Amino acid sequence: MSELDNHLNSFTQEQFDQIGADFDAIRRRVINDLGERDANYIRTIVKRQRQFEVGGRAMMMLPPTWPLGVASLSLSKILDNMEIGHNVMHGQYDWMGDPALNSKNFDWDTADTAENWKATHNFEHHTYTNVVDRDHDIGYGLLRMADDQPWEPRFLLNLPLTALLHVFFQHFVAVQNLKLENYLIYKTKSREQLAEEFKPVWAKMRKQLAKDYVYFPLLAGPFAPLVFAGNMTANLTRNIWACSVIFNGHFPEEVEQFDESVLEDESRGQWYVRQLLGSANFEGSKLMHLMSGNLSYQIEHHLFPDIPACRYAEIAPEVRAICEKNGLPYHSGPFWKQALSTWKRIARLSLPDRLLPTKKPKSKAAPKAKPAAEKETLPLAA
Description:
Blueprint: H1 3-9, H2 13-33, H3 36-59, H4 66-88, H5 114-127, H6 158-167, H7 169-174, H8 180-184, H9 191-219, H10 224-250, H11 268-277, E1 281-283, H12 286-291, H13 298-303, H14 312-326, E2 332-334, H15 335-348
Parallel strand pairs: 1-2
Domain Fatty acid desaturase: 65-332
Organism: Salinisphaera orenii YIM 95161
GO molecular function, one term: oxidoreductase activity, acting on paired donors, with oxidation of a pair of donors resulting in the reduction of molecular oxygen to two molecules of water
């Protein structure tokens, strides 16, 4: 058992409850403070996103401005995906009463349906964060990303499949809710069941493919090839960036995974601790934070998924202070460092356990809070 495990198992339930109260206080304060500046922020981002899209699509139709057009459209798609779509569909702006920014109405410019994403991400991922066999984001049914996942020969392809996932990320996310591995590999899902579940997915994917690769190129007339190539490049840029941001926040080597015992009688304080241990931040400029949808503050996002992400930077020092007070880790590092650690994990877990020179400990079980009466006390000084 690691030093951190021993430390967590020394906590009383009262200590976990205090951690929960401390984080609840941060959330309550921010929620009570939401107002005009937050509304102006998201409306400004939406306005800029639309300007980048219109400008990008116009500039792509002329060869001299094609690179600028692609860059502009790429920025538009990243903003729509990361800072607008992801955060709006978390309900971060429902309090505004604006139908266009309400999580129940919003849909984004990507292949995944809003309803499927809210089921796999908002509920499944954020409820069972990093719990093996409950959080499908651990490997997306495609990769081996946890030591507790039994090795299979297909995981030898961990590295090339990860690269493929980055390239076609919007489409892999679109079919995530189908749990394709249950049909293709484990044979626990019928062809008929899969076909029925795929209907709404294919309707959204077909709409997106037609928009980017049929309708807009046709509107460009003789410049159709430029628009087709520009849309493909912008989608590729958005896919690679979004996948990189998500992987850097969830899969560096120091990020923990958990077995299902962690869910047994889990208190709110213990849930907060699981979010801390199962997340990592990456550092960078204000532009990098904006383009990541502020998921560069993945720790704060896992703690407070319904708080507007633009607030994460200002509460991050308070979160770090609570971690330091309780001897809990706060994983953070430069983008390149988190990416390198993530790809190291992907490579390591592609190999059978017997070939690994060193093996990371298995997924964590639930820390068992000690009754208050059992809490160790220091001897009085003579």
